Amino acid sequence: MDLKNITVLGSGIMGHGIAQVSATAGYNVVLRDIEQGFLDKAMEKIKWSLDKLVSKGKISQEEANSIYSRITPIVDLAESVKNAQLVIEVVPEIMELKKKVYAELDSVANKDIFFASNTSTLPITEIADTTTRPKKFIGIHFFNPPQLMKLVEVIPGEKTDQETIELTLNYVKSIKKESVVCRRDVPGFIINRLFIPMVHEACYLMDRTGATLTEIDSAVKFKLGFPMGIFELADFTGMDVIHKATVEMYLRDKKVILPHPRIQKMFDEKKLGQKSGEGFYKYSDEKYERVSLSEELANKCNPIQLVANILNNAAWLVTNKASDIEEIEKAAQLGLGLKKPLFETAKEIGVKNIVNELKHLAVKYGQFYEPDPLLVSIQ
Which residues are catalytic? Predict the structure, then answer.
């Protein structure tokens, strides 16, 4: 199929970002939301973003005008998908809301239109089964902000056909993004399977060892090759996002995460991180601030428990045929900003040492920590 026309449902941060990158790649885009006021704000933000690119010399004013003109804001759902070939849904991560949207969408959309849900945690197969076209339904997980983040996770449901997968991969390539395919519709897909449990594990590490926030974060940054500390990254992501992902992943499979009560407590107290002024750290204003981390602080913390957690989840993805080591490394590099490969870090620490750490944790804290067979086999 020669894909030309895309409709984006939802004009929030992710929605208008996806609309912008699609229009930049030459697609005709319809941006749809339930109120004109939402669309007006979204179009203002797109214009601001394009003007910024012009001021930096990244694109010409003529190119900016052309991109902007390819985005048409529409409130009426049927009208918004009249000429669509691909619909990308970007509504909030609430299963009942998504099902409601797809029930309405399915009733007005031509049967040839492909559906893609931008979800980071919700089961693709369950959403797809609310439509009459599960073969033409797929997960497409952009990262925030879509204009800057290179990675897109592509998640086929159980019934997604090859044509839909290929169309989605070609689309991702055309907007100059890098794709990784999560081959099975598993909780957390690839990135959140690695990241979300690690946030909880870092809280347990603090409890069990007495290490401070900055000592753990320094070890994560300087010893594990993350671009920032795990608590710093959690604050940047937002505790509302982490809490939502935790709940959804834990509902699907209780072996995925060992929830730490601190996450729920912070969410309840609205300590959401950077966006609220306080999370694990306190922030003086809305401007993003970096926490002061150092190699000296890193030397006060042994992060093997965190390495064991993330490696065990990576191994689980391979063992359960959801991904392979190459794709996981690509996802970790582009989605989490890792400066060196996960399995390279594992070799430096020693896979045998990691397996022994997991066995020790399993004896002390339960079978959640049982090492994956893949790690046992390569130690």
Answer: 120, 141, 153, 192
Reported as a single tens digit per residue, the pLDDT across 203-258 is: 999 999 999 999 999 999 999 999 999 999 999 999 999 999 999 999 999 999 99
Classify burial at 311, counting beta carbons within 10 Å of its beta carbon; exposed 0-12, middle 13-18, buried 19 or more: buried
Range of the domain at 149: 5-181
Is 226 in the same domain as 171? no
The neighbour count for residue 90, using CB atoms within 10 Å, is 26
Distance CA 51, CA 272 (A): 31
Specify the DSSP element, H or E, that contains 67.
helix 61-69
Q: Which of 181, 207, 232 is the last residue of a domain?
A: 181
Residue 204 and residue 226 in one domain: yes
Residue 60's contacts (CB-CB under 8 Å, 6 or more residues apart) are 54
Radius of gyration of the chain (CA): 21
Q: How far, in Å, CA of 150 to CA of 235, rounded?
A: 21
- Tell me how crowded residue 292 is: count the other CB atoms within 10 A of its CB: 9
124 with 165, same domain?
yes
Query: What is the full DSSP assignment across 118-159?
Result: --SSS-HHHHHTTSS-GGGEEEEEE-SSTTT--EEEEEE-TT
Give backbone dihedrals phi and psi of 154, rounded to 5 degrees, phi first. -115, 125
Tokens 């400066």 sit on residue: 339
Strand-pairing partners, residue 282, are: 278
Q: Do residues 222 and 295 make contact, with C-beta atoms less than 8 angstroms apart?
A: yes
Q: Specify the pTM.
A: 0.93
What is the pairing mode between strands 71-74 and 86-89?
A: unpaired
Cα(132)–Cα(103) distance, integer angstroms:
9
Domain boundary among the residues 181, 207, 225 is at 181
